[in-house]
Each structure stands twice: as C-alpha cells, then as structure tokens.
C-alpha cells in the first residue's frame, strides 16, 4: 500500500533540508493510517550534525503526548542527507528500531520513503492525494 503525501508537504521537506544545509535536518511525520498530513521540524541535537541526526527528545515527547490526547498520530521521522543519497545509510540501518515507522530521507533533488521493518528498511511507494 502506498503512503499519501501532498506536494505541499514534499515542498516543506525540501525547504527544511535546504534551510539547514550543510547540516542534517530532522523531525517527525504525523498523520493517520498511511497518510502523512504534517511534519514537525525538530532540533538536531546530535554532536556531529553534519553527518548524523538525533531528534530533540522533547519534540518526540511532545508529539507523542499530543497523539495520546487525540492529535495526529506519530507515523515516523524524516532527516536529510545533505551530501549523500536519498536512502538510509549504514548508520541509519544500525540505529533503526525495526518498529514499522515511516522514514523520509531527503537529499538534494530527491526525497525517498521507507518502512523501518524488523529486517531492515523497505522502500515505500508514494501516492499524491486527490483531495
């Protein structure tokens, strides 16, 4: 099943990556079912933000609290690869939880979508919403 992402949201992700270049940007994907409806940009608190990312833990706590209170569900995460390809790196693979979350990886000129499956990242197809 493809995930749904609007063209406006794709533009937001590209803008977020461009604004943080040459550092990695990161944040949270929210929505319902397989539809990404919003992004929550977060501070990259990793000590080496040019090549790694760590989402600010408070942003994660706040997003999960909002979801429990009836807000949009946390579906996954995004980050950029300012100098690399738009696919999960070996570091991403090593740090992944295998929890089924959706990941967006943004590189210059491309954004790709992945499922953090127990056996490793699986590519996801993308559908543009019609409404």
TrEMBL record:
<feature type="domain" description="MPN">
    <location>
        <begin position="3"/>
        <end position="131"/>
    </location>
</feature>
<dbReference type="InterPro" id="IPR051929">
    <property type="entry name" value="VirAsm_ModProt"/>
</dbReference>
<dbReference type="GO" id="GO:0006508">
    <property type="term" value="P:proteolysis"/>
</dbReference>
<dbReference type="InterPro" id="IPR000555">
    <property type="entry name" value="JAMM/MPN+_dom"/>
</dbReference>
<keyword id="KW-0479">Metal-binding</keyword>
<keyword id="KW-0482">Metalloprotease</keyword>
<keyword id="KW-0862">Zinc</keyword>
<dbReference type="GO" id="GO:0008235">
    <property type="term" value="F:metalloexopeptidase activity"/>
</dbReference>
<keyword id="KW-0645">Protease</keyword>
<keyword id="KW-0378">Hydrolase</keyword>
<dbReference type="InterPro" id="IPR037518">
    <property type="entry name" value="MPN"/>
</dbReference>
<protein>
    <recommendedName>
        <fullName>MPN domain-containing protein</fullName>
    </recommendedName>
</protein>
<dbReference type="Pfam" id="PF14464">
    <property type="entry name" value="Prok-JAB"/>
</dbReference>
<dbReference type="InterPro" id="IPR028090">
    <property type="entry name" value="JAB_dom_prok"/>
</dbReference>
<dbReference type="GO" id="GO:0008270">
    <property type="term" value="F:zinc ion binding"/>
</dbReference>
């Amino acid at each position: 099943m493809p995930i749904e992402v609007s063209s406006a949201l794709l533009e937001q992700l590209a803008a977020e990556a461009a604004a943080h270049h040459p550092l990695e940007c990161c944040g949270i994907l929210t929505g319902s079912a397989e539809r990404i409806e919003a992004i929550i940009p977060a501070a990259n608190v990793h000590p080496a933000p040019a090549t790694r990312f760590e989402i600010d833990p408070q942003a994660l706590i706040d997003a999960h609290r909002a979801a429990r209170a009836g807000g949009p569900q946390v579906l996954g995460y995004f980050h950029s690869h300012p100098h690399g390809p738009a696919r999960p790196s070996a570091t991403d693979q090593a740090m992944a939880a295998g929890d089924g979350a959706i990941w967006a990886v943004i590189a210059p000129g491309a954004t790709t979508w992945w499922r953090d499956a127990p056996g490793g990242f699986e590519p996801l197809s993308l559908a543009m919403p019609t409404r």
